[in-house]
């Protein structure tokens, strides 16, 4: 009984001690956290979900290997045919971080500086606008306007001459939309980064940022823990009057969300303080194009009979065999349209490409092993591990906690490796790219941040419903937990101050003579 009483007093004392710092932390991180669902719900969305598509027909085209040799290209990081403005073009990436080169299929003529024009074409395609272009910026490093969570580099930022400063970042290597923004989203995103992640701290003072944020969030977590202890240990016969009563009632419903947000946020902060985010996206080593000599255009009709091909890329197996990868058109029936459907499709992950057919680039023979075998070989290339180290392997066609929408690349193969690698990688067979890599030690934090901090377990309800629920819980927490708690804390401090300033009642002095 005595121990229970001590625990009650201890939890009450600590809860009151942490009230000011924890309450301010809840207000600051709660209000700034509300900016994120505001940004994703009301921020600009691309008008078109799918990348530009056009059936590919190489009948009568100049041999691809002739075009490459005439341009003096003997090695390249990526070679593929992409849909561009008005026609399909041969795209060659010699250096992953430099603008790409483009050639016409009909005569092999190079289109000088076309990467910029292609970026504008993609921007107009995704946004559905015909406004004049104000600026085009080639982005090779992550910055405040294009943070590392977007993953893709290099990209072009195309800004249009509009009152809302509408702009889009496009990744020309895969014809992907990387990020859409306007003045509203820029302001909201800046506010979120400044007040939620404290990005305004100088780079050289990262340790101070982590320490201060950890102290604030830690105080909020401890405040929630002591509050739960009080709910369990201190029983009342009736509801307390005024703010105290409402504060206690709200605690039963909102204590768990406060624990979830603060604990997962603290875990995320510490994890990334110890493991600095890096650019994971990695292309395969440059291809030696000397073995590419099969005139695929001559047998195009026979190879693609009964199929609709909308992409072609050059890939290489582990033993140096070059393959043409013919990407087949996806089934578009019932595809997403409108801002809400496109927003959900981006976050849920709807495939933008179909299956593939592989043809030997030297002999023209169909390569029967297919995507899974190539994915295994890519895994060995990027990790150095053999097939025996693979614990599991699967095709990922939807985004989730382990591979989320920020990667902007589907479908990919997931390969789980055991010791000594102890990691999961995601590879894209279309261009031989390592899309993401997650160490086993990083997985608990990713799962925690996805499910406990961002509440992605609500995905079945839809993105809009998820944002509404999270916003409502956070808003109620700010009003009923932080504001009322701070009000009680201020009142208690005023009472204590008044009690200290009130002079003590004098004790009557006895007359010694009377004794």
Please, could you describe this protein's structure?
- It is a single chain.
- Helices cover 42% and strands 17% of the residues.
- Strand 10 (309-316) and strand 11 form a beta hairpin.
- Helix 5 (206-233) runs antiparallel to helix 6.
- It has helices at residues 2-42, 64-70, 114-127, 183-195, 206-233, 242-274, 300-303, 338-348, 370-383, 443-453, 463-501; strands at 75-76, 78-83, 88-93, 101-104, 133-139, 155-160, 167-171, 176-181, 287-288, 309-316, 322-328, 356-360, 390-396, 412-417, 423-428, 433-439.
- The chain contains 11 helices and 16 strands.
- Among the domains are: 1-42 and 201-279 and 460-491, no CATH class; 64-184, no CATH class; 369-454.
- The strands form 4 sheets. A 6-stranded antiparallel β-sheet has the order 4-3-2-10-11-12, with no helix packed on it.
- By secondary structure, the protein is of the alpha+beta class.
- It comes from Eilatimonas milleporae.
- The chain crosses the membrane at residues 210-234, 246-270, 468-490.
- Keywords: Membrane, Transmembrane, Transmembrane helix.
- This is PepSY-associated transmembrane protein.
């Amino acid at each position: 009984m005595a121990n229970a009483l001590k625990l009650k007093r201890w939890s009450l004392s600590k809860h009151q001690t942490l009230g000011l710092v924890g309450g301010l932390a809840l207000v600051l991180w709660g209000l700034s956290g509300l900016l994120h669902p505001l940004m994703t719900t009301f921020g600009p969305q691309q008008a078109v979900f799918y990348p530009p598509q056009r059936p590919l027909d190489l009948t009568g085209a100049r041999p691809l290997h002739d075009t490459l040799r005439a341009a003096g290209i003997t090695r390249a990081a990526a070679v593929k045919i992409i849909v561009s403005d008005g026609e399909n073009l041969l795209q060659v990436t010699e250096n992953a971080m430099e603008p790409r080169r483009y050639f016409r299929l009909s005569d092999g003529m190079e289109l000088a500086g076309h990467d910029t024009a292609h970026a504008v074409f993609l921007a107009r395609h995704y946004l559905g606008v015909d406004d004049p272009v104000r600026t085009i910026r080639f982005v090779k490093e992550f910055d405040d306007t294009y943070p590392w969570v977007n993953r893709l580099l290099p990209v072009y930022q195309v800004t249009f001459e509009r009152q809302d400063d509408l702009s889009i970042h496009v990744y020309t290597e895969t014809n992907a939309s990387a990020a859409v923004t306007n003045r509203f989203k820029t302001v909201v995103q800046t506010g979120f980064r400044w007040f939620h992640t404290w990005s305004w701290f100088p780079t050289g003072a990262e340790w101070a940022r982590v320490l201060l944020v950890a102290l604030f969030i830690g105080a909020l977590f401890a405040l929630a823990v002591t509050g739960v202890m009080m709910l369990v240990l201190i029983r009342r016969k009736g509801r307390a009057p005024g703010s105290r009563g409402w504060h206690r009632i709200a605690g039963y419903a909102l204590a768990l969300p406060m624990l979830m947000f603060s604990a997962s946020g603290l875990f995320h902060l510490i994890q990334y303080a110890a493991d600095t985010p890096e650019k994971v996206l990695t292309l395969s080593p440059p291809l030696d194009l000397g073995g590419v000599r099969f005139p695929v255009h001559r047998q195009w009709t026979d190879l693609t009979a009964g199929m609709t091909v909308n992409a072609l890329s050059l890939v290489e197996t582990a033993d140096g065999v070059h393959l043409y990868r013919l990407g087949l058109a996806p089934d578009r029936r019932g595809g997403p349209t409108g801002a809400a459907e496109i927003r959900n499709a981006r976050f849920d992950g709807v495939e933008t490409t179909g299956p593939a057919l592989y043809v030997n680039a030297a002999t023209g023979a169909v390569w029967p092993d297919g995507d899974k075998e190539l994915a295994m070989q890519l895994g060995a290339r990027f990790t150095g591990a053999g097939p025996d180290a693979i614990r599991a392997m699967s095709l990922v066609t939807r985004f989730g906690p382990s591979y989320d929408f920020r990667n902007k690349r589907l479908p990919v193969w997931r390969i789980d490796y055991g010791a000594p690698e102890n990691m999961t990688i995601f590879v894209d067979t279309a261009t031989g790219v390592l899309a993401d890599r997650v160490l086993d030690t990083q997985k608990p934090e990713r799962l925690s941040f996805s499910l406990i901090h961002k509440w992605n377990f609500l995905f079945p309800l839809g993105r809009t419903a998820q944002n509404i629920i999270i916003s409502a819980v956070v808003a109620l927490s700010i009003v009923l937990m932080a504001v009322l708690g701070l009000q009680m804390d201020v009142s208690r401090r005023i009472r204590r101050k008044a009690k200290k300033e009130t002079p003590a009642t004098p004790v009557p002095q006895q007359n010694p003579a009377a004794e």
